[in-house]
Fold each of these.
Amino acid sequence: MLAKRIIPTILVRGQTAFKGPGFGAQCTRSVGSALAIARTHARRGVDELLILDIGATPEGRSPDFELVTALADGCFIPITVGGGVKSLDDIDALLRAGADKVAIGAEARRLHSTLIRDAADRFGAQAIVQIVELRTLGHSKYDLHAGELVIQAVDAEGLMGGYPQIEHTLGDFDQRLFKGPVIFSGGCSGPADMLAAIRAGADGVAAGALFQFTDTTPRDCARYLKANGVEVRL
């Protein structure tokens, strides 16, 4: 049995990390240096990091490749990077900068976009993650070429009110053809939420505010999941 993953999320704009409520333009609360937060998680030996540039798409720019290089330098854990990814050149540059996987959201939602399929063909599906917003789940298109899917509850981001609609969402999604890992993100209030998501079918769980605004650590969550019969890496 593959171990379930606990994934800290860092929302960045420039060198600064931000948290909600909300996502994108609504996310205005600075929580410090993105580099410092990433390195703290790396020292704790987390499973991986999900780093999303919340300024790139609204500002119409490419990802911050220099930031990714700085984040990856000396950070010996897998890093998934997203935000502003619009082309194969963007993906190539992110992988060269040190990202292990590239997350594609807005571009994947564009009508007739073939970016995920083309990226999987060029770089391998294991390097490509599709982000699907929970609020559009019912009419989203899924690209079966992606190696992994993140279901993101954007409206719950930063509120720590619990992952919304877990059983309904994952139960509905399991009827689809996608066979890769599914990660749930947005709204986690603690390890009990993670356990509920995993029992509903998630392969991994992401959290941001939980690790910024409470004393709960990824290791605390892993111990809780382990105590409740979930295979995790300690």
Amino acid sequence: MEAQRMTAGSVRAIGTRPKDLAARARAAAEVAGADAAAVDAAARFPSGAFAQIRKQKLLGIQVPQSLDGEGASLDDLADVCYILGGACASTGLIYAMHQIKIACIVRHAKGNAALERILRRVATEQLLLASSTTEGQAGGNVRSSEAAIEREAGHVSLERKATVISYAVEADGIVTTARRAADAAGSDQVLLVLLKADYTLERLQSWDTLGMRGTHSEGFTLRARAPADQVLPEPYEKIHPQTMVPYAHLLWGSVWAGIAAAAAGKAQAFIRHAVRQSNGQVPPGAAHFTQAMSTLRMLRGVLGAALRSYEAVMSDEKAIAALEFQSMITLTKVQASELAVATVLHSLRACGLSGFRNDTEFSIGRHLRDVLSAPLMINNDRILSNLATTSLMTPLPTSISG
């Protein structure tokens, strides 16, 4: 199914979109799709897809034009994630994670020359950055770090046991959270940008999962020593709500929407095939295809509305920090992940046994296994539990529009 624009409009002026972006994304998606089954079967990094992504110069599109990038907007990135996610979920998610980290650097470098040099290299050399935000006993609590940076003679050093660093071995750099100092609280964090020469990795655990197998999300002990000016100047307590959370939930959601759309496309193809084979008789599964399209429409609507809401306030620190916005953007993740799973399940039931089998052109198996990761990435139960108190304090709306 051809990817559609998820937003009705954009904050960017017409004609300022990176040149031929959709065509470039589709060229990468074509390679990703052709390799997706093999990537899934071997749980390996989608190297062919990322060779094409580099060829299409998609890794640096978010970097400002002043630093040799293309200045792509958030909805540009969402569309690329949607297209790639529909072809290969692992490729789409890796691309999303990279762009989330690029967004943190772009929005919070504050003129730091070392970080701007890294951004320029991302654009010109097509560097791929990985993310390291989980470690030790903290697990999925990304707002608490165990390992602390140590400062000495213009450098910082760090050793952290990261339970997951997706595509760490294949990345050209890693962006990691850490405690500000040995005597700092776990929530007093910084974000540190590391390039390949700055760190070593010692594998702690392998990656053998139900889905998203190509993200190659192994655990490592990360040991690093880097120039101190590669620490972002703003504290992570600002970066997290202003950029990390909105970009993560919107770009992850775009990947999940791409998976859902691909599954719905298979269901549509199956129903059309069944109608042709039965002289126009609509099969029983058609009802589930209708439901798949309905949930996909709701999914795209949720993401589109959240994109517009964030774009409207992304330069307003006070508005972003407001309880209403933070609750909305966090719940967007829950809604998007659940709707994506529902869409794929409806698509599977529309295809029936042909969707359940792994050896038919209508197989939904890989899409289902991949999308089932969505509610578990920053577990929806954790999100809903954390928001329970906030929800109790929030007044109920008194009208449809209010």
Amino acid sequence: MVVTNSVLIAPSLLSADFSRLGEQIKACETGGADWIHCDIMDGHFVPNLTFGQFIVAAAKKVTNLPLDVHLMIEHADQYIPEFIKAGADVVTVHQEAVYHLHRSVSLIRSLGARPGVSVNPGTPVSSLEEILPFVDLVLIMSVNPGFGGQQFIHTIPQKIQKLRQMADKLNPGLLIEVDGGITPETIGSVTNAGANVLVAGSAVFKYENPGEGISLLRKGISG
């Protein structure tokens, strides 16, 4: 997986127009996106239903960008192989939703994808100390998961700083991803705190051309 930017932007398909999904994914790629983020929700772990591996497979057909699959689901181990078969390059499971986190992370890596772990806003990053050496990415939720368009939780930059300090000791190459309420106004605070992968839904797809939203996010990073 080639990284071309020091800060990666991953538009979330949760906010895309699914009647034009292929077109919008291609517009994100043309507009400078680094990854495509796929939010998988089961209506149990989070209060919403989204889509499954068939949409991931469809996205894989229309883009060369890495597919970043975020499993907000129970019993993730049952579905990890199917999502990787469908084309997931990065698979992230929730610390709060899996019983045997090391086993889940090991399964993801054994099947050829990059493993990540996510934590909800109320979960301290200290809970990740033992798993940190075994993952490539930690996804910090900056809203309570389940729905797009929510307001950014203002204490998240301090949480990112704590995680970056842990990572410097335990896994210096760790990618820190942030998802929820990312806009041109909030993106600078999370990148300054140490995040280097940013998920944005509404801030990208509210524009007819998603590339316009991506460009504004990059301007927000640089100030």
Amino acid sequence: METEITPGETGQRTPTVDHLALLESHAIFVLREVAAESERPVLLFSGGKDSAVLLHLAMKAFRPGRLPFPIMHVDTGHNFPEVIEYRDRLVADLGERLIVASVQDSIDQGRVPDPGATASRNRLQTTTLLDAIAEHSFDACFGGARRDEDKARAKERILSFRDTFGQWDPKRQRPELWHLYQGRVQPGEHLRAFPLSDRTELDIWQYVSREQIPLPSIYFAHRRPVIERDGMLLALCDWVTPADGETPHEACVRFRTVGDTTCTGAVASSAATVEEIIAEVAASRVSERGATRADDRFSETSMEDRKREGYF
């Protein structure tokens, strides 16, 4: 906590709290309130920077005891190997329970069509998520979404209520005046809680710096083979191969967001430390999803339409 001299004759020191501390306090409050009011909550974890911060806040909220909910990852099967390794190592170090909901299992069961070996599976996650929620009877899902990512996320409140089909209706959101939240749901319904909603990408990185939160290595500048497609740099892998006219080359890049390898682009960058990334993000005028996620830039359906269907 910092202090400053207030104007006046007495010269008394009045404590002031920095904005990261205020954001942390609010997030912990949301985590505790939703966990207390819900019967079977779960924390959604992608292995990305936002879910890493969310998990870090959950540990602050509930340690020294174990988390009162499991951690769940909806795995597309096309993830970056660095992210999967990070996920497994982090959860093992924390000693918490991990549930992996597999999109491949949904394909094998005929729940969703197979889009092909090199196509994006991001949208298929909706069915896998809703099936996992039903299987485990979860009534609240903590997620790391932020309002500055997309205009549809900006319309969503801290608590987002979903009907028995997992659908979101933006016109039926509950008021959240003075940070008062009403999280009760009917049987079969559930809510999504977004404790990081008020943060920006810059806030996330500043908090990562302050708390020394470990992240997957792909967030930091490194050299790897890529191809340029639709104005994005895609990393070559089993699911991303050169098409006609595309020439692989090696570049120094980093990733601003984590997702399916088939639709998550890298950015040319030499930022190899958190401090260098903070400077880079502070100068950026495009959100990480808008700049590097093909499913947001080129999808035939908007983020809002996908969220209405049950997307994160």
